[in-house]
């Protein structure tokens, strides 16, 4: 289905969401049509944030908004759907567009498998009527479904379209780029060199994939690295948990701007506990690169300033390899909580692979290394 027709069927003029590769056609259409326009389209920090924002739009206009997300974001919307939108509470209507990663019978990455199994069940448990769109779904079928949904929306209920891989098509192109020069892979390689035998916790997406390939290229073991393949936004909290319990080791956290933004409340918690053995590195390219390159709000903001306000005793921003090496060395030598924000270009190798170990093998190897 052409995304232009899908948008016409939805009949909405306000969209908010967190980008997803399965919904790349929709995301690119919205960026080409609206960009980031507070009147029509906002990329928010996390999916619960989107729901609340869309609820405010409805309160102010009486219109029905659209919230788009990957199915992994369903967990983030459970609370606002159940305690804000539900027709037993305020009865705020909303249309959800959900990218179906990990659909049963379709090969996907391990972090998507169980989420894919329960995607529709979660919608049912939240009282959200849904319709699945696949490549074979006709435009007329989607129009008929939307007509049927109108009755529920008018009753203050929520509905959803669950989008299978390849269901939406868009011929328009969007180029995502920034003015930064450092590439993420060289940043991570520098971190690997400076960290030595210290344990690392790396974030969801390409950062963990690149870390795995760098270790392989150097002929090194992967046991030092916990690759956070799912649970976007939580790697810094995982690193905090490790650091507090293993104060004999320096723990390095490789984070991303979209992930750090998604659950930024982790930063004041980390600062409050001030683990002196934690080095928190945020690679900031101002983009949700893994799912297509759509912008985050962090491209023009400064994580180091935010970290200092949260209570980090040491926080800097760097944009060159030389400055990065200097700050990594300083952080390792000072033995105090440190944050290093690294400004990064958008882009990665076309032939970037994926970890060849399973998630459980990664966990078990990492635990053995921590306890050795």
Please give the alpha-carbon distance between the first and last residues. Answer: 54 Å
Number of strands: 14
SS content category? alpha/beta
Sequence of strands across the biggest β-sheet: 2-1-3-4-6-5
Instruction: State the oligomer.
Output: single chain
Overall shape = elongated
Largest sheet: 6 strands, parallel
**Percentage beta strand:** 15-25%
> Low-confidence stretches at least 5 residues in length (pLDDT < 50)?
none
Q: In sequence order, what are the helices and strands, one letter per element?
A: HEHEHEHEHEHEHEHEHEHHEEEHEHEH
What can be said about this structure in brief?
The protein has 372 residues and is an alpha/beta fold. It has helices at residues 3-10, 24-33, 47-61, 74-85, 110-125, 139-154, 184-195, 206-217, 235-245, 257-262, 266-273, 303-310, 321-334, 359-371, and strands at 15-17, 41-43, 66-70, 94-99, 129-133, 158-163, 200-202, 225-227, 251-256, 278-284, 287-288, 294-295, 314-318, 338-343.
Give a structural overview.
With about 375 residues, this protein is an alpha/beta fold. It contains 14 helices and 14 strands. The chain has a 6-stranded parallel beta sheet, with helices on both faces. The chain has a 6-stranded parallel beta sheet with strand order 8-7-9-10-14-13, with helices on both faces. The protein has a two-stranded antiparallel sheet with strand order 11-12. It starts with a helix and ends with a helix.
Task: Give the arrangement of secondary structure elements.
Layout: H1 3-10, E1 15-17, H2 24-33, E2 41-43, H3 47-61, E3 66-70, H4 74-85, E4 94-99, H5 110-125, E5 129-133, H6 139-154, E6 158-163, H7 184-195, E7 200-202, H8 206-217, E8 225-227, H9 235-245, E9 251-256, H10 257-262, H11 266-273, E10 278-284, E11 287-288, E12 294-295, H12 303-310, E13 314-318, H13 321-334, E14 338-343, H14 359-371
Parallel strand pairs: 1-2, 1-3, 3-4, 4-6, 5-6, 7-8, 7-9, 9-10, 10-14, 13-14
Antiparallel strand pairs: 11-12
Helix pairs in contact: 1-6, 3-4, 7-8, 7-13, 9-11
């Amino acid at each position: 289905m052409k995304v232009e027709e899908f948008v016409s069927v939805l009949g909405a003029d306000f969209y908010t969401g967190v980008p997803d590769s399965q919904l790349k056609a929709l995301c690119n259409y919205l960026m080409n049509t609206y960009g980031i326009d507070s009147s029509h389209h906002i990329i928010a920090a996390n999916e619960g944030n989107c729901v609340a924002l869309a609820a405010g739009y409805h309160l102010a206009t009486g219109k029905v908004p659209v919230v788009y997300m990957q199915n992994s974001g369903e967990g983030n919307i459970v609370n606002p759907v159940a305690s804000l939108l539900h027709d037993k509470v305020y009865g705020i209507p909303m249309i959800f567009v959900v990218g179906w990663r990990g659909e049963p019978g379709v090969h996907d990455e391990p972090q998507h498998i169980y989420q894919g199994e329960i995607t529709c069940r979660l919608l049912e448990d939240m009282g959200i009527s849904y319709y699945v769109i696949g490549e074979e779904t006709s435009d007329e079928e989607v129009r008929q479904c939307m007509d049927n949904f109108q009755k529920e929306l008018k009753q203050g209920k929520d509905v959803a379209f669950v989008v299978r891989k390849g269901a939406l098509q868009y011929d328009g192109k969007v180029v995502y780029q920034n003015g930064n020069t450092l590439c993420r892979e060289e940043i991570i390689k520098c971190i690997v060199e400076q960290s030595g035998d210290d344990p690392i916790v790396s974030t969801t997406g390409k950062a963990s994939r690149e870390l795995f390939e760098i270790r392989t290229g150097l002929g090194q073991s992967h046991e030092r690295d916990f690759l956070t393949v799912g649970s976007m936004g939580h790697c810094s909290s995982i690193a905090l948990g490790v650091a507090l319990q293993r104060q004999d080791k320096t723990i390095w956290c490789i984070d991303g701007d979209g992930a750090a933004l998604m659950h930024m409340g982790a930063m004041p918690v980390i600062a409050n506990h001030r683990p002196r053995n934690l080095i928190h590195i945020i690679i900031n390219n101002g983009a949700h690169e893994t799912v297509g390159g759509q912008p985050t709000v962090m491209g023009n903001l400064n994580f180091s300033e935010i970290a200092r306000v949260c209570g980090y005793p040491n926080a800097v921003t760097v944009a060159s390899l030389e400055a990065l090496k200097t700050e990594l060395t300083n952080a390792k030598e000072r033995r105090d909580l440190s944050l290093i924000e690294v400004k990064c270009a958008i882009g990665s190798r076309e032939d970037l692979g994926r970890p060849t170990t399973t998630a459980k093998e990664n966990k078990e190897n990492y635990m053995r290394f921590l306890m050795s």
